[in-house]
User: Fold Low specificity L-threonine aldolase from Loktanella gaetbuli.
Amino acid sequence: MFFASDNGGPAHPNVMRALMRANDGYASAYGADPIMEEVRAQIREIFEAPQAAVYLVATGTAANALTLAALCNPWQTVFCTPMAHIQEDECNAPEFFTGGAKLTLVEAVAAKMTPDTLRRAIMAEETRGVHGPQRGPVSITQATEKGTVHSCAEIAALSAVAHEYGLKVHLDGARFANALVALDCTPAEMTWKAGVDAVCFGGTKNGLLGVEACVFFDPADAATFELRRKRGAHLFSKHRYLSAQMQAYLSGDLWLDMARSANARGQRLLRGLQQMPHVQVLFDPPANLLFFDAPRAVHARALNGGALYYVMGGDPHVGDPEEMLTGRLVADWSGDDQAVDDLLDLLRA
Assistant:
């Protein structure tokens, strides 16, 4: 009953086999391996973007920070929600890799900014001339940190506001596949067709050991990326082991199959929780990440029964047993229905 994070799930066996195949003999280093050529072609085909610039890094933090650094000058600011990974979970890496650009937090509901809140935030900058930060890229997270998903229309509306002011749009796609499956759309529809300029196409949370793709739909936007990746110590010499993971991920639509599996478990959890009168599901979670409020005693019983997930707002074992605390559940590709049902039984008892 492991629902703490999809980061904790195993890599898919196809990925492990791909690494063993890639390990045979010699291959050119630093991304010049033949597997990377195939990966680049695969990603361009999937995104319907034949000219896209494609690079691989090992972590989501590196992907976001380096991509934003390529889109943002040190004297600019990045517009994002207060819940964005780049704000809450990346230890100021975007500020570091951009050379000092700040983050401007945009008011959000269920971790989603709106065109109006974004416009207000943009308008509030560049009001002090040389003394204040200049406007920089807009960063959207898909799926969001609260388990919500932007529709393609919502992304397009935010992109339209950004482009109205000449700003680039970055999409943090740590759970890109989960959002895509939930929307039942194409990668192109959820990115460049909706106005996104660059996407961090995640794989680590969806069955890979550790690899993310940084995709720039206009290669001109990636002019400094390779230098920044090298200078930032994120260019792998034995790059083929990144390439092999991504190759396996994309082959035969494995990435979509794993996302569908994770989402199915997430929605099974959702349906079960919605039937419990003492539980309140928060936000509107269509994919594999959800939050719920339940009495402290309910959380304590589930955790004591062997469930693993995060509880927020207090110690689940100390305090008023009736006080409501928030639980976060994340389903990964490898989970099964029995684990979901066992957790629901503990929460229902």
Remarks:
- DSSP finds 14 helices and 13 strands in the chain.
- The CA atoms of residues 310 and 328 lie 5 Å apart.
- The mean pLDDT is 97.
- Residues 256-348 form a domain with the Aspartate Aminotransferase, domain 1 fold (CATH 3.90.1150.10).
